[in-house]
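BUG: 3D viewer hangs when loading the predicted structure for this chain

Environment: internal workstation, default settings.
Expected: structure renders.
Actual: progress bar stalls at 90%.

Input used:
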Amino acid sequence: MIITPRFHLLELGDQSWCPEWLREYSHLARIQMWKTEAPGGRGSPAAQVCDLLDDNLPDASSFTYIDSCAGGGGPIPIMEATLNQKLRFKGQGPVKFILTDLFPAVAAWKAIAKQSDNISYIEEPVDATKALRLAEPGKKECRIFNLCFHHFDDPAAKTVLRSAVESADAFVYVLDTPNLSFSLPLPANKLLGDCSIFEMTHRNLLAFLNTTFIVLSPFLTTFLWFRYSPLHLFFTYLIPIVPLFFAVDGYVSCIRGRTPEELGNLLQSQSDLDLSGWKFKSGEKMVLPPFGKMYWYMGVKEKNSG
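Structure tokens produced before the viewer hung:
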């Protein structure tokens, strides 16, 4: 249940004056979240994203996957290995993943790309509102937004979605709301593309509780990761700037979350945008009990076979 209206408040990590070491800490925390194994053999959140892609794309092997706001690389190494393993069992694949961002983390991406021939990156800044098609000829393009779409205000979000509709074949966005599925009128057709959005924050009580757990986590992770760094120790335990940073950006991320209906309105309010043949669906999945729920929104394009 939504407990607050949406407000696009300021996040500290979005500001040019935010210290880079704080951003890097945030990236490391998100990477750790993606890697954490859920109890019961369900796998990590990154692996469970692959389940969602495989379950909701009729032919996951036909896509090139673009991480449109890759940050430090997040879940991509796990996603590449997991999805390609699934496809290999079916006699398909492998598929390629491409990392892009407005602020490329080239050093981190270079290390990730060395782990697999199926991961590459764009060194130059890529603005998601003006992104060009990157898939090779003959391949469909799926744009993935991992824990990042809430960073866009409504005008920017409209432009990002418009870019995906006009130059990609699919997109996926994760959010936290009940299931929703609708499609626009379509003649006899075939699947052309997809886009996916994934989030772990939203405007409900469960997401706020999950964020509270994350806010407290630096009191443990600083000791585990940065016990020899006077800077991190000082600003965690003596002057708790790190937990404050996590609190501000975490709770603001929740307040910035959008429902599937709100995302649909961003698309349909653009009267000159051709949505013919696009099908949109959404859902939620508990990936890290007891509070870590993943929310996703997906658009898949179909094209007249004639």
